[in-house]
Amino acid sequence: MIDALSYVLIGTPDIPGWLQMATAIAGLQADVVEPGHTVRLRMDGKVQRLLLQSTTGKPTLGMGYTVAGPEVLEAVIRKVEDAGFAVTPSMPEERALRGVAAMAHFRDPDGYRVELAYGLQDAATPFVPGRPIGGFRTQAGGTDMGIGHTALMAGDFAAMKHLYHEVLGFQLSDRGSKPFVAEFFHTNPRHHTIGLADTGTGPGVYHFMLEYKEWDDVGRAYDMALEKPESIGVSLGRHLNDHVTSFYLRTPDGWMLELGWAGRLIGEDWQVSELPGMSLWGHDRTWLPDAKREEARQILKKLSAEGLRAPIAPTE
Ligand SMILES: [Fe+2]
């Protein structure tokens, strides 16, 4: 039903801080619509993938999911309304700013703005990265995989899971409980398009992940982040479930931007599993309480002693 996470909406009080991180470190392209207020960030041939808008209030994150066309959009809207959510039609200026043919939006149980859209436009000009990188991975074998994933610390875990899994039709990829409860869901070959964590501290944004095509681009972003070690929220490491090697930058809004490489793809033969931990190595989560951080260290030692390893997924 839902094809992909095609864009995110970021409401921030710190546009300059975001621009610096997004272009100089992550390598996104900034297309300034209104200086200091509205910026389209590009990561490929599409007109925008992250839409930055200034806010004087609290930072916000919204998710733009795309479907195949008008019939599917109508069907999804009906399902969401039948589940008790009020869906609002979009205004022409909202569609123009996003570069989509159609869009409607609603609030999920934790209050995130969810947009349902189709027809995200191609840009008139080629993608020019903010620094020399090999590009971002938004497709695999010609299939749209979207821009990455969001990971949310759920306030109401059951209600969030019901919406994304039962109503919107995201499929379960796997789940874990160490060092915290989390479930991962996919809508296309990307291992997960959303992760929901039940940390007891939500609702809150944990992170948003982007995937590079080339490993060295993660390393170079890490070099830059190391110049300000406090900007690293999660150290370099490798995930057990999607096999992504990554680190997490703290955004100016407090939540994190995961920059990764070599996510594995989900095929027909996928089996849901219970994860023995969240990472194979690394990924020291500075935000976790000390006891949980220690638990994570012990899990890594155990997995290391067991000799657990994972193949590197092909990136094309
Ligand atoms: Fe992630």
Overview of the molecule:
The longest helix is centred in the last third of the chain and has 17 residues, at 290-306. This protein has one domain: 2,3-Dihydroxybiphenyl 1,2-Dioxygenase, domain 1. It is of the alpha+beta class and 316 residues long. It is built from six helices and 20 strands. It has a ten-stranded mixed β-sheet. 41% of the residues are buried. A hairpin with a 4-residue loop joins strand 12 (171-176) and strand 13 (181-186). The two termini are 25 Å apart. The structure holds fe (ii) ion. Residues 149, 151, 207, 209, 258 line the site of fe (ii) ion (FE2).
List keywords for this structure.
316 residues, alpha+beta, ten-stranded mixed beta sheet, eight-stranded mixed beta sheet, 34% strand, globular, binds fe (ii) ion
Number of strands: 20
**Could you tell me the mean pLDDT?**
96
Q: Can you tell me the number of structural domains?
A: 1
Q: For this structure, what is the CATH class? A: Alpha Beta
What's the arrangement of strands in the largest beta sheet? Answer: 19-12-13-14-11-15-18-17-16-20
Number of helical regions: 6
Bound molecules: fe (ii) ion
Terminus-to-terminus distance: 25 Å
Q: Which oligomeric form is depicted?
A: single chain
CATH topology: 2,3-Dihydroxybiphenyl 1,2-Dioxygenase, domain 1
Order of helices and strands: EHEEEEHEHEEEEEHEEEEHEEEEEH
> What's the story with the biggest beta sheet?
10 strands, mixed
What percent of residues adopt helix (DSSP H or I)? 10-25%
Strand portion: 25-35%
| CATH homologous superfamily identity | 2,3-Dihydroxybiphenyl 1,2-Dioxygenase, domain 1
Determine Rg (CA atoms, Å). Answer: 19 Å
Which of globular, elongated, flat, extended, rod-shaped describes the shape? globular
Parts with pLDDT < 50 across at least 5 consecutive residues? none
